Amino acid sequence: MVARNCHIEKFHASYLFPEIGRRRDAFLKQRPNAQLISLGVGDTTQPLPTAASEAVIKFAQALATGDGYQGYGPEQGALALRQGIAERLYSCDIDPSEIFVSDGAKCDIGRLQHLFGPSATVALQDPAYPVYVDTSVLMGRTESYNVSTQGYGGLTYLPCTAENGFFPDLDAADKTDVIFFCSPNNPTGAVATREQLEKLVAFAKSNSSIIVFDAAYAPFIQDETLPRSIFEIEGAREVAIEVNSFSKLAGFTGVRLGWTVVPKELAFNDGSKVIDDWRRLSCTLFNGASNLAQAAGIGLLTNQGMQEVETLVNGYMENARILREAVTSCGLKVYGGKHAPYLWVAFPGRGSWNVFQQLMDEAELITTPGVGFGPAGEGFVRLSALGNRRDVETAAQRLVRVLKTPSFQPA
Amino acid sequence: MVARNCHIEKFHASYLFPEIGRRRDAFLKQRPNAQLISLGVGDTTQPLPTAASEAVIKFAQALATGDGYQGYGPEQGALALRQGIAERLYSCDIDPSEIFVSDGAKCDIGRLQHLFGPSATVALQDPAYPVYVDTSVLMGRTESYNVSTQGYGGLTYLPCTAENGFFPDLDAADKTDVIFFCSPNNPTGAVATREQLEKLVAFAKSNSSIIVFDAAYAPFIQDETLPRSIFEIEGAREVAIEVNSFSKLAGFTGVRLGWTVVPKELAFNDGSKVIDDWRRLSCTLFNGASNLAQAAGIGLLTNQGMQEVETLVNGYMENARILREAVTSCGLKVYGGKHAPYLWVAFPGRGSWNVFQQLMDEAELITTPGVGFGPAGEGFVRLSALGNRRDVETAAQRLVRVLKTPSFQPA
Predict the structure, then answer these.
(1) Within this chain, do residues A291 and A242 fall inside the same structural domain, yes or no?
(2) How far apart are CA A299 and CA A291, in angstroms?
(3) Nearest-CA neighbor of B18 among A360, A281, A54, A47?
């Protein structure tokens, strides 16, 4: 009989969010009348911008006609969409030919792992979006999971803590080939400054690394002087790839649309261009994002759509403000939530899953345990501000009620 | 600097269809007024069934409302869609929990490669859909490309020829872990009989192999007694996975929707269930098919939608009949086109790319060179019947005109 994939065997736990779902279901079985509110998985809740839905409707009508029907589109995505992304979402020069439309950042991160050879080494922020770790494990870039360090051998974790302002000591990534870096960060909500990203780019250059920069939360940056793309940093085109997404930008989490930017300058050590291999990979592992989703994206990247996006983002950032205020009013330390829809709440000396369970039991709130994002997330819980206003307001009231009880208060 | 992925370096040529596109573009540059008709890439051309487009429209309207909005769906796909697939598209018992909705068979074949460990061995029909080969190369399952054999070392090619009725000698797959098998076949158009599939299942069982069965062309089977799924064969649930697609069934090539069936009985040699690893992989590498595409699928799997599918399939099969007649009237031997939308035309003693070029030059027809699907495809050209009727009729006339000229006639 066929052997199980030894890399899958290494997974020490199920993917974080299904695990949360299982615990939620167990809770609801015991307390079926609980009024659970989720501040957990970063799922969007507000209606799709009408500019996007109207574009889909028009496109779907056309598909049912002889003249409007389209079959396979270009694997790289419709040119109009790539042009719209370049023009509307980047202040720096990105050529549409460098943009590859995807069905979401998560899916592209998995495919991006194939860009690099089996012995490529990986560094990543700790805590981090679990997909960087899991796809690295799957590609055989790691050793087994180490229970005492709560991490995988062979993977370089770059702790991002309150002490270092959530910007890691890059020297720990010495000699790693690929550095995953996410700003604004999921889960900490921290945003890297221009100076920090300059440092990152300079490090990648001197260290001969490629940065995989995840900018999925860039639309939430409120300060115009903060960079929204790694490519706003000089020299980044020689060392970075950027993955990005419509999911949080415009509530496309279910619609599935994202993109990856691979600059023409980026090269491997044999001089061959990374963009050429990425194009080949895209044709081999992918067949283009749904043309319905692409139509939605094209509709969104209009004046009307961009105005709707602004309203959407402002609404979520107001949620973040409400949640921040609730938590800080209880004397707890909270990070993030200013340029990102995530708040990172510190519970010093406590286990994340323990806090998760207590918040579910006592406040009927679903959160995300920080340790699910990596060992440095222990003692934190992530709150998502992507909910409905009414839910967020109720959640804030419940937080104020329970966080003031002694068990949640810092010693 | 970072090294190029050694597995990508092995690719001996670009993916077949982009290569055809490049040759077409070069041709059009020289002859910009050419009236090219494509019988090449198997792209659908007929309007999307209105049952599907109407369902998308309704769903997109709902997404733009507070009550109708949905974010992330289940990674495995909407339950209503999985139930519809089980009920409408399978005559054998498939539980909806065994169905995993995807953004297409191609994408799932790439992900399926991750189910198997780095040292898993692969056998496949020759000729075959290039994605089985390319994703195997990418996973490091092969050695370099061998110019003299026109294949990759370490990969077991199972020649499917006119001589063996396009059903391979399975003994050549001795000790291989994974056997890719496609019926109705792309590119040969051959359909495996019940007896042949029983032989395949028995072989997999005795050889301890897992079959990855590609049934994307099952809707084109005209004979009710021929199996449309590997799971119609007794014992298949212990040895097979099935990948499938809405692409050819209903013109979803651009909409992107497919599914994979992993039966609960299928196990690895340590007794662990394949379906559990597949679920974990689906959560790691994928975030669900676009909910717009899923809405289209749900709309399609209604009485109205299934009637539209029947009309669609009948139209394409009439195209196949027209093309078959044209080719056979010239005295050439043609296979397929009876239970599949592909015709496999023999040009004994001639090179496939050579025939491809001559058909483009002399008949302004784009075809697909058989050798692009594997070494045993040399001397053949694939014709797709998925075009518009008017184009197909014109193409048939052109074929009759040029195939009668001496250079195309068998010696």
Answers:
(1) yes
(2) 12
(3) A281
Asked if residue B119 and residue B40 are part of one domain, the reply reads no
Burial bucket for residue A200 (CB in 10 Å: 0-12, 13-18, 19+)? buried
Q: What is the mean pLDDT of residues B71-80?
A: 95
pLDDT per residue as tens digits for the range A179-225: 999 999 999 999 999 999 999 999 999 999 999 999 999 999 999 99
B178 touches chain A (CB under 8 A): yes
What is the span of the domain harbouring residue A178?
51-301
Could B50 and A64 be called an inter-chain contact, meaning their C-beta atoms sit closer than 8 Å? yes
Domains: count for chain A: 2
Identify the helix (H) or strand (E) that includes residue B82: helix B79-89
The two three-digit tokens of residue A52, written as one number:
């996007």
Report CB contact under 8 Å: A114, B8: yes
Q: Do the domain assignments include residue A329?
A: yes
Count of A-B CB contacts under 8 Å: 278
Which of B16, B136, B277, B287 should be substituted to probe chain A, the one whose Cβ sees the most A Cβ atoms within 10 Å?
Answer: B287
How many CA atoms lie within 13 Å of B322's alpha carbon, on the beta-carbon side? 23
Q: Does residue A2 form part of some domain?
A: no
pLDDT by residue (tens digit) across B42-69?
A: 889 999 999 999 999 999 999 999 999 9
Q: CB of B290 within 8 A of CB of A288?
A: no
Distance CA B230, CA B214 (A): 9
- Provide the sign of the torsion angle of the four alpha carbons A133, A135, A140, A144, taken in this order: positive
Q: Which sign, positive or negative, has the C-alpha torsion B22, B28, B31, B37?
A: positive
Residue from the list A60, A69, A208 with its beta carbon closest to the beta carbon of B45: A69
Is B410 within the bounds of a domain? Answer: no
Judge whether A292 is closer than 8 Å to chain B, CB to CB: yes
How is residue A38 written in tokens?
A: 């989720």
Q: Domain check: are A145 and A163 in the same one?
A: yes
For residue A342, is it within any domain? yes
How much is the pTM?
A: 0.97
**What value of ipTM does the predicted structure carry?**
0.97
With a CB cutoff of 8 Å and minimum separation 6, the contacts of A373 are A16, A126, A127, A128, A129, A130, A187, A382
Boundary of a domain, candidates A239, A266, A301: A301
User: CA-CA distance, A285 to A283, in Å (whole number)?
Assistant: 6
CA dist., res. B196 & res. B233, Å (int): 10
| Nearest C-alpha in B relative to A121 | B2
- Taking residue B303's Cβ as centre, other Cβ atoms within 10 Å add up to 9
Query: Is the backbone of residue B374 left (phi > 0), alpha (psi -120 to 50) or beta?
Result: left
Contacts with B2 from chain A: Cβ below 8 Å: 116, 120, 177-178, 208-210, 268-269
Question: Are A187 and A246 part of one and the same domain?
Answer: yes
Taking Cα atoms as reference points, which of B255, B248, B254, B257 lies closest to residue B386?
A: B248
- Distance from C-alpha of A401 to C-alpha of A267, rounded to nearest angstrom: 55
Q: Which residue among A273, A301, A329 closes a domain?
A: A301
For B257, nearest residue in chain A (alpha carbons): A290
The answer, yes or no, to whether residue B396 has pLDDT greater than 90, is: yes
